């Protein structure tokens, strides 16, 4: 993976690009993460496919655009990124918040997609309770109390049984909270709160779709995930039985297998023949 900055329209974007592969996969990280969260996962995908990772504006070291980053704004930045890279089509894989952006991209630029993958994410809008929780997080960040997020958010993403084994990842994600710009956190929280219900769009868009869900996800409990899947019979689904919200770290091989099979139509065993 080669790291670089590029101009996506007027936006300075920090990306990494494997540069090789017939098919292209764009990996979009979640809230309070950066593109480095994918570092141990991307080798499982390359060289079968070309992989692009990106710091979503407001996170990592990409540019902050303003007081609020709507999911539609982020989708348009990604279209400009594809233009700058000369990529006509890709499969967009969105983890959690990244899934919201992938859905907005699907709604606005579906002609640029081979497919869309929601990894521990949902087409549902925020509930009133979730919006209130995001408002509390905004208030904490503005009050200089970001450490409250760092104490809870990273560990809660992992199934309880995996936390000790993956403590180094939790520590890295905790550090990421501290180094994420306050303004970027607030901007993306504001955008997530206002995002649209994408269920009808997803059912009607005609694109290939894959849900990858963790059975032990504390943010999207299994019963809620099952309701989402049931509402989308047009989509394929892969369940990670021993994963929480961070399946690409908790069960990376199984997650990569599901993704590569979806993108290439081949299993990893077939890829290696």
Index terms:
273 residues, 11 helices, 8 strands
What does the model show?
The protein has 273 residues and is of the alpha/beta class. The chain has one domain (2-271): Rossmann fold, CATH 3.40.50. Helix content is 42%, strand content 18%. The protein contains 11 helices and 8 strands. It has helices spanning 71-85, 97-109, 128-142, 147-156, 167-179, 182-193, 199-204, 222-230, 247-250, 252-264, 268-271, and strands at 2-8, 11-17, 24-28, 50-54, 90-95, 113-119, 208-214, 236-240. It has an 8-stranded mixed β-sheet with strand order 1-2-4-3-5-6-7-8, sandwiched between helices. Helix 2 links the parallel strand 5 (90-95) and strand 6. Helix 3 runs antiparallel to helix 6 (182-193) and helix 4 (147-156) runs antiparallel to helix 5 (167-179).
Write the layout of secondary structure elements.
Layout: E1 2-8, E2 11-17, E3 24-28, E4 50-54, H1 71-85, E5 90-95, H2 97-109, E6 113-119, H3 128-142, H4 147-156, H5 167-179, H6 182-193, H7 199-204, E7 208-214, H8 222-230, E8 236-240, H9 247-250, H10 252-264, H11 268-271
Parallel strand pairs: 3-4, 3-5, 5-6, 6-7, 7-8
Antiparallel strand pairs: 1-2, 2-4
Give a quick rundown of the structure.
The chain has 273 residues and is of the alpha/beta class. Helices cover 42% and strands 18% of the residues.
């Amino acid at each position: 993976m080669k790291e670089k900055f590029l101009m996506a329209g007027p936006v300075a974007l920090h990306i990494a690009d494997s540069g090789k592969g017939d098919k292209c996969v764009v990996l979009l990280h979640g809230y309070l993460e950066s593109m480095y969260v994918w570092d141990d996962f991307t080798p499982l995908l390359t060289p079968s496919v070309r992989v692009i990772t990106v710091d979503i504006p407001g996170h990592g070291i990409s540019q902050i655009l303003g007081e609020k980053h709507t999911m539609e704004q982020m989708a348009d930045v990604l279209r400009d990124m594809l233009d700058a890279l000369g990529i006509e089509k890709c499969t967009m894989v969105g983890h959690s918040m990244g899934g919201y952006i992938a859905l907005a991209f699907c709604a606005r630029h579906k002609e640029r997609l081979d497919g869309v993958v929601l990894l521990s994410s949902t087409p549902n809008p925020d509930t009133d309770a979730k919006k209130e929780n995001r408002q509390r997080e905004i208030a904490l960040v503005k009050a200089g109390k970001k450490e409250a997020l760092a104490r809870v958010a990273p560990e809660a993403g992992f199934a309880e049984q995996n936390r000790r084994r993956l403590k180094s990842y939790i520590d890295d994600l905790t550090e990421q909270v501290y180094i994420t710009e306050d303004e970027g956190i607030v901007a993306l929280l504001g955008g997530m709160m206002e995002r649209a219900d994408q269920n009808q769009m997803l059912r009607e868009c005609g694109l290939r779709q894959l849900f990858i869900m963790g059975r032990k996800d504390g943010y999207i409990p299994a019963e809620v995930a099952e309701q989402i899947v049931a509402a989308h019979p047009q989509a394929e689904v892969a369940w990670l039985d021993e994963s929480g919200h961070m399946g690409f770290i908790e069960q990376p091989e199984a997650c990569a297998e599901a993704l590569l099979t979806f993108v290439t139509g081949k299993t990893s065993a077939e890829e290696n023949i």
